[in-house]
Amino acid sequence: MTKHALITGVTGQDGAYLSQLLLNKGYEVYGLIARRGTDTQGRLRELGIADQVRLIDGDLIDLSSMIRALEKSKATEVYNLGAQSFVGTSWDQPLLTAEVTGTSVVKMLEAIRIANPEARFYQASTSEMFGQIQESIQSERTPFHPRSPYGVAKLYGHWITVNYRESFGLHASSGILFNHESPLRGTEFVTRKITLALARILHGQQTILELGNLDSKRDWGFAGDYVRAMWMMVQNDQPEDYVVATGQTWTVRTFVEMAATHAGFKLEWEGENENTQGIDRNTGKVIVKVNPAFYRPAEVDILIGDPSKANQKLGWKPEVDFERLVSMMMEADLRRVIS
Ligand code: NAP
Ligand code: F7E
């Protein structure tokens, strides 16, 4: 029998890769789509699957649209990926973030209880919940200390998922995913901001890349690997929570250096803190500059995840390493900027 999946956030980075994975496995894929813009399906088109994903109008703040989406799709698996997902914006729009990223999760869980309590549920939780880290390597047992309105909202989503599993026996799992990137990453996130800017600078369409905290460290993986972990969690008989990470951490500065080298720049740093500049020795021009406007009111300095539970219980491990991820993203943006 064909399996039916409903994905919220289907137009986002992970929604696109997860749709592709499920279509390849023979699923009928339905996506909840909040029609706010005119061209929202760019990522699905880029993967060549826009005409295979069945879109259902709905919004995460509207419980009735979620119930209707569950009824229309006849979904037996629900992947809740929709969110206001940009940490920076969460300080400017904390209430919207609380609603879209936080309390919408209980709406989806209620929709499942009402429309189909047998449906399996995946919640897109995040390493941002660890925030000011309480252990040097973070696992499912590490206490949380979120540092942004986004992290706080996600923590609500995480615990309400755990609570509905414990209260009502729903097959609900929460994936605590560390940063994952790809050529389809939104341009506001630092990795894609870097690769796109470097490609544009190389082709004379931009002069400088302005960044905030270069010393911040992240455990960066590839989104294609991480959506596979989501699917594996949902297939497991036992609903549980899992950390998904690579177990390695890198600074923003290292990401810039590797991407620049890959693009053919000869980058050298001068100055410190807010006076830091990256100069291309091929041309003598300053191409990277720190702008404190991109600093955050409260920073998450470092994240490193321990994915051993996902490895042992699901058999999951990442296939794309950091170097390959950087080159994949840099190459994609070089191709896009030329074409
Ligand atoms: P993304 O690219 O920003 O996608 C977010 C999606 O949510 C978009 O499709 C967006 O639709 C949709 N959305 C926003 N507000 C909505 C609303 N009110 N109603 C319905 N849909 C709405 O995020 P992502 O990187 O794919 O991440 C997927 C999920 O994983 C998110 O929940 C994110 O918070 C979480 N997460 C991400 C990472 C990561 O490193 N990528 C790590 C841990 C957790 P529009 O395109 O129309 O705005
Ligand atoms: O920032 C620093 C910034 O915005 C990474 C989301 O997917 O992952 C993501 O959240 C780091 C931070 O991602 C700039 O201060 C420096 O320390 O790429 P980001 P994020 O905040 O880690 C988690 C796991 C999620 O769940 C989120 O949804 O880079 N940084 N300079 C900068 N960041 C940005 N965006 N722009 C800069 O110019």
List keywords for this structure.
339 residues; alpha/beta; Rossmann fold; UDP-galactose 4-epimerase, domain 1; 2 domains; 7-stranded parallel sheet; 4-stranded mixed sheet; 18% strand; binds NADP nicotinamide-adenine-dinucleotide phosphate; binds ligand F7E
How would you briefly describe this protein structure?
The chain is an alpha/beta fold. The chain has helices at 13-24, 42-46, 63-73, 87-92, 94-115, 149-168, 190-202, 223-235, 252-263, 308-314, 322-338; strands spanning 4-8, 28-33, 54-57, 77-80, 120-126, 172-177, 180-181, 209-211, 217-218, 221-222, 241-244, 250-251, 267-270, 277-280, 285-290. A hairpin with a 6-residue loop joins β13 and β14 (277-280).
Task: Describe the overall structure.
The longest helix is centred in the first third of the chain and has 22 residues, at 94-115. The chain has 339 residues and is of the alpha/beta class. Helix 3 crosses helix 5, helix 5 packs parallel to helix 6 (149-168) and helix 9 (252-263) packs across helix 11 (322-338). The N and C termini lie far apart (42 Å). It has helices at 13-24, 42-46, 63-73, 87-92, 94-115, 149-168, 190-202, 223-235, 252-263, 308-314, 322-338, and strands at 4-8, 28-33, 54-57, 77-80, 120-126, 172-177, 180-181, 209-211, 217-218, 221-222, 241-244, 250-251, 267-270, 277-280, 285-290. A 7-stranded parallel sheet has the order 3-2-1-4-5-6-11, with helices on both faces. A hairpin with a 4-residue loop joins strand 14 and strand 15. The chain is built from 11 helices and 15 strands. Helices cover 41% and strands 18% of the residues. The structure holds NADP nicotinamide-adenine-dinucleotide phosphate and ligand F7E. NADP nicotinamide-adenine-dinucleotide phosphate binds next to helix 1 and strand 5. Belongs to the NAD(P)-dependent epimerase/dehydratase family. GDP-mannose 4,6-dehydratase subfamily. InterPro entries: GDP_Man_deHydtase (IPR006368), NAD(P)-bd_dom (IPR016040), NAD(P)-bd_dom_sf (IPR036291). It is an enzyme of class 4 (lyase). This is GDP-mannose 4,6-dehydratase.
